[in-house]
Amino acid sequence: MKFRRLSDKELQAVEKEFVKFLSSQGYDAPSWQRVKSEDPDKVDFLLDEFSNLFWESSTERITYLEKSSDVDRWVFQFSESSAKVIRWVKKDGVENPELFSGVKQFPQEARGREIFLLLEQGLKPCPDERHKELNELFEKEGL
After folding, report:
1. Do 50 and 100 belong to one domain?
2. Using CA atoms, how far apart are residues 44 and 41, in angstroms rounded to an integer?
3. pLDDT in the model for residue 83
4. Burial state string for 117-126 with b = 16 or more CB within 10 A and e = fewer than 16
5. For residue 29, what are the domain limits?
6. How many separate domains does the chain show?
7. Per the count of CB atoms within 10 A, which of 51, 61, 128, 132 is most buried?
8. How far apart, in whole angstroms, are the C-alpha atoms of residue 112 and residue 62?
9. What is the pLDDT of residues 50-71, one digit of tens each?
């Protein structure tokens, strides 16, 4: 499996999408209940398939990820085959934080997995209204 299976709580949050997925696979409510009670392997397969589709479509839409703590701030900008990163490290008694930046290349098919791994580490997608500001930041850093 490319990604992990959605948790029960996550599945509840996307229940409408899951119902649409089941419908596209030919399952209505009664047939889904029957499969759940008679074929646990099929249930596992369908949950894994839906989870992969969910994570793939979710990671496709992400351009920026960020994470801040008391010590540092990370911002990632994703293209199809690379991720640019800027990290600010706060120093006690220093007005300007240290700045680190870099680029990581990866095969285009690995983009979703790269984003997923960062999401699992607690990074959050940046809202669209911040994209212009972040674009300027990465351009300023020459990345």
Report:
1. no
2. 5
3. 96
4. ebbeeebebb
5. 8-60
6. 2
7. 51
8. 9
9. 999 999 999 999 999 999 998 8
